Amino acid sequence: MGLRILSEQERQKKIDDKYSAIIAQLNGVSKKFKSSKAPSLEDINLEVYQEDFLSILGSSGCGKTTLLKMMCGLIKPTSGKINWPTSNFQNSVENPANLSFVFQEPNLLPWMNVYDNIKLPLKIYKENSYKADEEIYDIINLVGLKGFEEYYPRQLSGGMSMRVSIARALVTQPKVLLMDEPFSALDETRRFDLSQEILKIKKQKKLTVIYVTHSIYESVFLSNRIYVMQSNPGKVFEEFDFSNQEKLENYRFTPQFFEQTKIVSDCLKRAQNDQ
What is the pLDDT of residues 54-64, one digit of tens each? Predict the structure, then answer.
């Protein structure tokens, strides 16, 4: 089976059927900043299921980053509720080790080498030093940084810097990885390579990933579910579900991929025209 647009009835049935697997649920979430006359986000309803790769897709200014920051507690919603059901997942805002955030920029500390940049969160959480070293080297191998431990940020390419940022996010063994357009500044080749790496890491670590992007190709390739956003104010326009589709290694080069990319692209155009 391929891509499906979920109706409201199908969405509610899925919630009922898979409630035990929900790790985050947003109900009627809105955000209005004091400096703005109109809300940035309005009446957002969505669910995140265990081991989802969920993409939030939309044009610039639709509130994707604001939504991600609310989910991890960096900013508070004006109204509505963000729930992390305790039966499945301890409250993430109260227990930040459950969550890790990868920003658009790597934000590496220039006076620290690769190893120390990755180790930084463990210092903050005061992890046992021996345990920390073991975890760091495991992560370094996982993201392809072996041999670069002593390099400084100025010696790294954009792609390698982003690998360090991802490694730093993974070193605390999070359950949920939030990613805010992490590959937007990279060329197409590096984006492709890192996209493949993220899928491998997700599978190996059994992560749930919430991924913000404006790239239709990226969202279709990476995700098992996509929420398409519209702007002014930011709202969920459509939900796509790929959960029953097997994505083989060469999926990006198949007619099915291009067909599904066109469907999502057409939906995004409708969302933009419906503002």
Answer: 999 998 889 99
